[in-house]
Amino acid sequence: MSIAETDTPTEPVETVDQEELARARRERIMKIARWTLPSLVMILTLLAWHLYVTIAEVPHYILPGPLLVGQKMIEDWAILWPAMILTGRLTLLALLFAVIGGVALAVAFTQSKWAEMSFFPYAVILQVTPVVAIAPLIQIYVDNAFLAALLCAWIVAFFPILSNTTIGLKSSDHNLQDLFTIYGATRWQRLRYLAAPSALPFFLGGLKIAGGLALIGAVVAEFVIGRAGTGLGLASTLLEASYRFNFGRLYAALILISLMGVVIFALMSLISHLALYRWHESALKRES
Amino acid sequence: MPTTRPPLGQRDTLLKMRHVEKTFGGDIVALKDMNLTVNDGDFISLLGPSGCGKSTALRLISGLMSPTSGQIEWTGGKSKDDLGVVFQEPTLMPWARVADNVWLPFRLRGVSYNEVRDDVLEALKLVGLEKFQRAFPRELSGGMKMRVSIARALVTKPRLILMDEPFAALDEITRHKLNNDLLALREAIGCTVIFVTHSVFESVFLSDRIVVMAARPGRVIRELEVTAPYPRDEMFRTSPEYAAHCREASDALHQAIGEAA
């Protein structure tokens, strides 16, 4: 080892060093893997499913193969599509009323301590009583089956919005509250300019949960209240298919219900992101 | 208005605190028999250890609390437009842009942004942030957020600005810079300030009057005058005069801590 060797000039300094290059490479790989890995799992599962059904000769009324499910999806589209529309309408209406009711109650609760003390326990009771247990009663008292189902889904969906929004409305910064007091803000100004924006992230968190719950509520309502007049939603289609051992259709309906859940969740996440990305910590991307 | 402030002793009275006391829960005396005259143009520091009632005094003056006994009398009565407040935290609304945060005091009076756009921009210019009016608070550094908070406090040109340890959470360099800027600001617009701090150096550098307070029970034990003329700059920080005042204030503070212990 000579001095000359250790003295050889170092390579020109690059603006991007090895570590950063490695990190960039890792990120690129991660980005691709995020999509390819779940897709790969899906393909392998479908393949295993198909092979199992074919090789073990499982009868289609026990477990239909993926091809049969796909075939049913296409064949029965004329039944499934309107069913999905119906369940979708039920879910979204329930969610809409849950938002209106939940936010209105939350505002009432935070504006009046008396209202909160009087009614909050009943909101909790409504929430903790399983909707499956209330649904038959609702079916008896509410003549219109769609309305009855809507009521069921609403009961399930509204609580997270009420509870989250109530917490959110109470969570505004204490110094800002003092500042509003010093500047002589009215009750309405306080709600509009301070409490409401403070509550927004909480409300949106509740909305994400409520979206999923509204779908669950709709499915439960269809199961319990049945086809008696709700028309054929996805859940009642599923139930009927099971009675008829039409497992291809059952699976097709099930997949569509899951798909609806995913779409609703994605939609709520998007709304949340659009409302918060400019200012809220939860929506910030950390640099480095 | 560039100020020609009358010397101490010749200023008009802005408010008087007479025998003001505040008791919590019947037996915890947060503030005992406080007497203080605040004059137009004063820069008063309330200096003292934790629990000496300096923040309580500020809350009483701001009207967020009422005194248990005693009076706070404003010359010409007090209206809600008389005060600007700066807290220890910047206390900005994270969902609102910088200009909208500064607009807040006007907005709460029902004044539209267009009517006061010039005032808002001028206030931001005074704190050196006119280029950041469209930014959200999270995009700013701690010192810049504090400047926005100061701009909001002075945008309505209040008679009195209350500052509750506004720079305590900042690093030393930023704090010095903001101290300098605050004094420059005061020379530019002639505001009256009550400034709560537990830093001897900060209080001497900024104020023309220092009220030293002691804890348990919270009370005023001494009032000092810092006679050094304004404008004060970095030179003042190293002057013998500054050192002498610091020593005086420091002695008073030690007396305050000693008495409490």
Q: Could you give the order of the helices and strands of chain A?
A: HHHHHHHHHHHH
Query: What is the CATH topology descriptor of the largest domain in chain A?
Result: MetI-like fold
- The CATH architecture of the largest domain in chain A: Orthogonal Bundle
Helical residue percent band of chain B: 25-40%
How many helix segments of chain A? 12
Low-confidence stretches of chain A: 1-6
Total number of distinct structural domains of chain A: 2
CATH architecture of chain B: 3-Layer(aba) Sandwich
Category from helices, strands and their pairing of chain B: alpha/beta
Global geometry of chain A:
flat
Overall pLDDT confidence of chain B: 90
In helices, the fraction of residues of chain A equals over 70%
Whole-number average pLDDT of chain A?
88
Query: How many β-strands of chain B, per DSSP?
Result: 9
CATH class assignment of the largest domain in chain A: Mainly Alpha
CATH 4th-level superfamily of chain B:
P-loop containing nucleotide triphosphate hydrolases
* CATH homologous superfamily (4th level) name of the largest domain in chain A: MetI-like
